[in-house]
Amino acid sequence: VLCVSQNYDFFYFVRQWPGSYCNTNRSYCYPTTGKPAADFGIHGLWPNRNDGSYPSNCDPNSQFNPSEVSNITSKLQSHWPTLACPTNNGTRFWAHEWEKHGTCSMSKLNQHDYFELAIKLKQKTDLKQTFRNAGINPNGGPYSLSNMKEAIKKAFGFTPHIDCNVDASGKSQLFQVYMCVNRTGSNFIECPVFPRGGRCKPSIMFPVF
Length: 209
Ligand code: 5GP
Ligand code: 5GP
Ligand code: 5GP
Known about the structure:
Elements: E1 10-16, H1 18-22, E2 41-48, H2 73-79, H3 91-100, H4 111-124, H5 127-133, E3 140-144, H6 145-156, E4 161-166, E5 172-182, E6 188-189, E7 203-206
Antiparallel strand pairs: 1-2, 1-5, 3-7, 4-5, 5-6
Helix pairs in contact: 5-6
The structure holds guanosine-5'-monophosphate (3 copies).
One guanosine-5'-monophosphate binds next to strand 2.
């Protein structure tokens, strides 16, 4: 019998640069806790298969329950801030991520452990500092995409996937950074497969936030 919750091979750990969410032609809203830090926040920790497919919404009976993460709420607010409208404290984003992706993790990580794992992975990977060490700063740019990937590879040993979106004037910019993590969440790994979409130009902006 196939256990649905185990039906994945690794995680994508996805980070977002807030400046690139907020300078497009689309809406954004700061959370009720105020403007987030100028840092790469968490977007999600997504179970994925080696063939590129992924499970989602694995347990319709498991709704996000804020009381299960009450002892890490302030960490979630600072490390996993929401930028979507309407303004809220982040609960909508976390609920979406738990229900779509978290319910497919291991067999299965409980909500508290799932969110705590993501925070731990973020604390191991200070992307802003890593870029700074390579002379890459959120000051507009442009920067070479390959230099950005190289900076992360040099610091952590593995090549990330970088996802771009387009600013209000049509320029390609750094939006999300994907790193791969093994099935149990204990180690970063080389990505078995890269996601499609969000293609970057060879030279991209890194906007101020
Ligand atoms: P989708 O069209 O799948 O909702 O989102 C496509 C991409 O745009 C996603 O990476 C998502 O993060 C981003 N996005 C979705 N909704 C909004 C929005 O209201 N404002 C901005 N700035 N980005 C959004
Ligand atoms: P996805 O399915 O793309 O992982 O999750 C995106 C969903 O989370 C969308 O419904 C989007 O509106 C919501 N969301 C809330 N806050 C954010 C945010 O800060 N960034 C992105 N990309 N999506 C967010
Ligand atoms: P987008 O259209 O913004 O790239 O993706 C929308 C949402 O679909 C993401 O936020 C995420 O929830 C899910 N998604 C897109 N691509 C992948 C992928 O390659 N792997 C996994 N696990 N989820 C994905």
